[in-house]
Each structure stands twice: as C-alpha cells, then as structure tokens.
C-alpha cells in the first residue's frame, strides 16, 4: 500500500499532553542535557520562567493515542525517521496542558541509489489551555518504497 496523497492537509484527532516535572527531567536525562533550566525550579525562576522549562526537542516525546489517518494500512517496517524542526512562541513549562494535533503537510517522492522513497512532511502543533500557540514540531517521516534496498544487504 502507498501513501494516500488525497489526505494532504488533513489532521489527526486532538490529544492532550499534561507536562509533568518528572517527564521533563527524564527527557533531559535521556538526551544527556544537564541544563538547570530543565531540572531546577529555583534556577528557572531566577531566569524569569515560572518553573522548570522543557528542552527544545521535548515534543518528540508526545505520543499520539492513535495513528494518523494517512498512516493507516502502511507497512510500519518501511518507516524511517527523518529531519525534525521546532519553533516556539514560548517555552513549554511544567504544568502546561497542551492540545496537540498532527497535520500532513506534504508528500514528496524521491529516487535514490537505494530505491524510491516518499517523504511525509508532518507538523504537530501544541496550543495551551487558553488556545494560544506554544510550539510547532515539523518532522519528516521517510516511507521506503518496495524497491528500496537496505544498506549492507
């Protein structure tokens, strides 16, 4: 099965992420970043933040409860992670309750030495409890073609 390009511009259902202090700490530990902004509330407040803030790549940890509609029927073994990019109107902070939704922005076909692939450009946007934009996480997911060869094979 191939990606249904008619779904470009569609979005997933909204899901809620409640940002917890422990989740930020565990994420910072997992990426090996000991910045006190991610761990020390007093330090974060001394820098003008209301509490501990999350590292910039934190939204990669936000797991959708369901798969997006454009992934339905696709072979997950053919997925590869691609590029990620983040933009913010303000930092993500302990206590935030974020409404998140993923949108399929584009699908581009590429041909390479290892075969064909489709690049799915997707964006997760997060809004705060007042409905204001907090972040946008753009990511590319590579969907390898059936003719793709895995390196080393």
TrEMBL record:
Where in this chain does the entry annotate a coiled-coil region? none
Which Gene3D superfamilies does UniProt cross-reference here?
Hotdog Thioesterase
| Domain FAS1-like dehydratase: residue ranges | 6-135
Q: Which InterPro entries match?
A: FAS1-like_DH_region, HadA-like, HotDog_dom_sf
User: Know the name of this protein?
Assistant: (3R)-hydroxyacyl-ACP dehydratase subunit HadC
Q: Which organism is it from?
A: Roseovarius indicus
